[in-house]
Amino acid sequence: MAAEVSQLLLAVVQGIPAGATNEDLTKALPDVPAATRVEALNILLQQGGIEILKKGEKLVYRAKDPEKKSALPKDADNEEKVVYGIVEEGGNKGIWIRDIRMKSNLNMIQLNKILKNLETKKLIKAVKSVNASKKKVYMLYNLEPDLSITGGAWYQDQDFEVEFVDVLNQQCLRFLQMKRDNAEKKREGPLAFKQMSCCTVNEVQKFISDLGISKVKLAEADLETILKTVVYDGNAERVRQQDGSHVYRAVNSPLPPTGLVQMPCGICPVIKNCSNCGDVTAITCEYMRDWLD
Amino acid sequence: MSADYSHLSSAILEQCFGKVVQAVADCLFSATTRTLGQITSATKFSRKEAALALAVLVKYRLVDFTASKQNPFLAEYSLRREDILCLLRYPRYVHLVQTKYGNVGASIAEELINSGSDTATGILIKCLAEGENKAESPESYRNTFLQMVTDHYIIKRPELLVGDDQDENVPKFETNECDFFRHPNIDLQLLAKIRKGEASLTEARDSTMVWNLNYDRFHQDFRDTIMVDAIERKLGENAAECFRFILKIMYNTTDPWQRKLSNQITFVEIKQAIERKSNNLDLMKYLDQYISLITDDSLGFFRRVGDMGGGVYVVDMEHAFESLAFACVESVITERFGSKAARIFRVIRCKKYIEQEDLQKEAMIPSKEAKSLAYNLFQEQFIHVKIIKKPGGGSNGPAKAFYLFQVKEKDTVRMLLDASYKSLYNTIERSNFEKNEHKGLIEKSQRLDSIVETMKERGETDEYIAEIVETFTPPECEILNKVKNRIKTLSKAELTLDDTIFLLQMYQHHCTSLPTGIRKFK
Predict the structure, then answer these.
(1) Interface check B342 vs A, CB under 8 A
(2) Chosen from A163, A172, A196, A255 to mutate, greatest number of chain B CBs within 10 A
(3) Which 3 state secondary structure label does DSSP give A110?
(4) Name one GO biological process term (chain B) (predicted).
């Protein structure tokens, strides 16, 4: 009985953000006897669903944000509470230790002790940011770090997974080329060929997940970034559709290999220093000698 | 004009004309104009030598002269710096003429190249005397010559103005635009007489009309080939054929060296031209599709600007050569710094301005590698940095600066062009060095060859010949082959290098307002 009433009461209290007085509660639930109401309020207080505030002489009940339900044990001291509160404010983006110190006005030694204490109690955790490897940020223990901190699917323990990205890049390119080769076989006019060689991100996503090379599930946005790298490699083109979305297709380079890079001077790292005199000259050039023999 | 180009042109001139011409040209290269007196005092050659060198350069159309403003009796000479590079393109010119006009055309072009400039009769006499194609009649030579004039491959030089006061003054020339490609009157009977020795060349009526190769026309063909090949690589043969027709139609109404956009072309014009001249059924069937394919392509060669007559289009030279030149720059970066660097370069070009952090995210390259690649590209001047400073200090908080990467396209291309000039210079230097190093050996083998040749003519026995050949020892033979191979590789590299140079020069012509070597009909 009391449990049911407590839910009703909670709903009423949540309806009044400024806080509900006793009169509000009796008005909202007239047929609940006072004894049951008190019992129900006690249950809510125990669960931490509401808090009691004093407004003048009256008592006011206010709903607590269930997300923010404090996990801080009762025996925590004031400093711990303050630090915990600051970390809590940081949300899943985390907060840097220097900012905590500025906000809490605690000295470094004390703060370190408190943070360590909270960490061992598994109330907060330290997460390394991918943007700056030495920068640690603190956040509540149960929070999932934001993408800007972890870097998303491409990071494993704050390390960028180059091989993973490279493999995906190659596979995407292979898929686009396969698609183009298939379209080429059909011979249905140039526009049809072009259209058939285009792929949407969705198709690519399906292909990649069917391949099973990725342990994590890749979202379309993730594959879009990969496809963009294929475009930036000059192997594909990004074509804008009429509805604003983009499709991708494999393309050839418009030029044969450049003449300049077919001889050592084109890729010479010291060409700037090359002249008729000095240590770097065409006649004594080692790159040239290796190339000619 | 860069220092690299000045070295290159100096090396080319030395190779073609020798030291004196090289020194005179070097002296002219560094100045707008010089008089003969200035040249002799600067080069320390005698007046006669310097004048002879100038005469050679004038004949090969590498030096212009005009009367000085202060003194009408004094000539001022100026070098046509851009044309010096064309000396290296001669094999390509001959090859092009060969494919278009066969052996007859090729021998005409070769004679024109050898003599720099000459009268029509003079050229034909030389061609006939050369006698590589004995079967060809003088008529066919004449007709080919006239056809080449009609097709603008050969151009008439300005004619000397003859007047009373001409004796002392610096010669003046008459430049008449409609006269450049007017057919000369070639008298075949006189030609026959001259060949028999019954008449002299000065009797020919066209002795005042001097002709030479029109480089611009050749360059136009080279440019078209680059564009059509690019279309073929990207969109296939049919699209390339379509684009070839488009270019042909474009030249009907547009000056070939118009810098940015062509004049307008309608769909109907293209369709008619293709229906008349092409027998490619696939192309005719899907013509509208091919055209929209070329129009939509990211290369941006062709653009739709209106709807009249089934669609009005222009050829966008500026965009075309921007795409092509940067495909070239990107390929250089790929070879030199790796494909990741090329990716970074493309990201920067695509985003115009981008910060380091965004760059590595967009390119999906770990920050350390991305930084090192970007800084390398910056160091080699492929990319540039723009700094935006936010004023600070006082109550505004600390001063802040943003470092944004960007590609200054013109600077990048110029840098690469200079690198190409330098590379070309290096190949020439190296080739000269190899030749000098093994001069004795090369001369010996040449002597030996000529001895063997004469012995064969005299009908000596094979054994005796073999004995003579054996004086050339196997190790010598090996070295000689090695050197020959080296020189061959180097000259091949010269040709491929010139492809890059030509492409980048086209970029400079079509995408910038810099003065370029192309000066219509002068």
Answers:
(1) yes
(2) A255
(3) helix
(4) DNA-templated transcription
Buried b / exposed e over A135-174, threshold 16 CB at 10 Å, is eebbbbeebebbeebbbbbbbeeeebbeebbebbbebbbe
Whether residues B150 and B105 share a domain: the answer is yes
Tally the domains of chain B. Answer: 5
Q: Which 394-433 residues of chain B touch chain A by CB within 8 A?
A: 416, 419-420, 422-423, 425-427, 429-430, 433
| DSSP code, position B170 | P
> Over the stretch B66-90, which tens digit does the pLDDT of each residue have?
888 888 788 889 898 888 888 889 9
Q: What is the pLDDT of residue B122?
A: 85
Say if CB B24 and CB B62 are below 8 A apart: no
B393 and B301 in a common domain = no
Min Cα–Cα distance to chain A from B444, Å: 23
The residue among B331, B487, B492 with the most chain A CBs within 10 A of its CB, best to mutate, is B331
Q: Do B230 and A252 touch (CB under 8 A)?
A: no
Q: What is this model's ipTM? A: 0.80
Distances in Å between the alpha carbon of B361 and those of A121, A286, B316, B401?
A: 36, 38, 34, 21
Q: Torsions phi, psi of A125, nearest 5?
A: -140, 155
pLDDT of residue B521: 44
* Listed residues B50, B79, B108: the one ending a domain: B79
**Domains present along chain A, CATH in parentheses:** 2-63 (1.10.10.10), 78-158 (1.10.10.10), 162-250 (1.10.10.10), 260-292 (no CATH)
Q: What's the DSSP call for residue B396?
A: G
B520 found inside a domain: no
What is the three-state SS of A50-78? EEEEEECCEEEEEECCCCCCCCCCCCCCH
CA distance B324 to B463: 59
Q: Which residue range forms the structural domain that includes residue B353?
A: 320-407
Q: In sequence order, which residues have a C-beta less than 8 Å from that of residue A216 and are 6 or more positions away? A: A153
- In this structure, the answer to whether residues B391 and B308 fall within a common structural domain is no
Q: B516 lies in a domain?
A: no
B33 plus B95 within the same structural domain: no
Instruction: Give B-chain residues touching A160 at CB under 8 angstroms.
Output: 366-367
In a domain, residue B518? The reply is: no
Strand partners, A60: A21, A53
Query: What does the pLDDT look like over B127-152, one tens digit per residue?
Result: 888 766 666 778 888 888 999 999 98
CATH of the domain at B66: 1.10.10.10
Q: Does B256 share its domain with B170?
A: no
Q: Which residue numbers in chain B have pLDDT < 70?
A: 1, 131-135, 163-168, 393-397, 517-522
Which two tokens mark B475?
């190790």
Cβ of B336 within 8 Å of Cβ of A190? The answer is no
Q: Which residues of chain A have pLDDT under 50?
A: none
Is B190 found in the same domain as B223?
Answer: no
Residue that is last in its domain, among B407, B432, B456: B407
Chain A CA closest to residue B296: A239
In a domain, B487, yes or no: yes
Whether residue B522 contacts residue B175, with contact meaning beta carbons closer than 8 Å, is answered with yes
Specify whether B196 is located in the same domain as B292: no
